[in-house]
Amino acid sequence: MTKVVILCFVLFIAGVLHLISPNTFLKAMPSYIPYHLELIYLTGVLEIIFAIGLIFSKTRKIFAILTSLYFIAILPSHIHVSVNQIEMFGISSPLLLWGRTGFQVVVIYWAHACGKVSKKAKKVRGTFWQKQ
């Protein structure tokens, strides 16, 4: 459950930052993608929605899948930042930029893992539904 709470917190904060400070993210947008500012606002809203969707056990599995797909979809932006050595959040070292990009694989797995239901939770859930 801790992994879910932490991811929700990170997504929520990132989403809010996209909405209140969109210029921070403009430089990460590849030139071949149109509507930069609109997409930054959209991703901010999506990140907040994903955070909320992951909180609730009834929606967690589908939102874990959607969040994983979202992280895959924004991977080109991370690659763009690394290839072009664009400073993001004070990170300008090519090694650290590529490390940040590589870390996205961990984030994708993390989001996916949030949708997994533990054996203990299945047992408790099964017991609950059987008593109804």
Helix content: over 70%
Q: In percent terms, what proportion of residues is strand?
A: under 5%
Question: What structural class do you assign from the helix and strand content?
Answer: mainly alpha
Low-pLDDT regions: 126-132
The tally of beta strands, per DSSP, is 0
Could you explain the architecture of this structure?
77% of the residues lie in helices and 0% in strands. It has one domain (2-131). The two termini are 25 Å apart. The protein has 132 residues and is mainly alpha-helical.
Q: What descriptive keywords fit this protein?
A:
single chain; mainly alpha; 132 residues; disordered C terminus
Q: What is the topological layout?
A:
Layout: H1 2-20, H2 23-26, H3 36-55, H4 57-73, H5 75-83, H6 94-113, H7 119-131
Give a quick rundown of the structure:
The protein has helices at residues 2-20, 23-26, 36-55, 57-73, 75-83, 94-113, 119-131. With 132 residues, it is mainly alpha-helical. The chain has one domain.
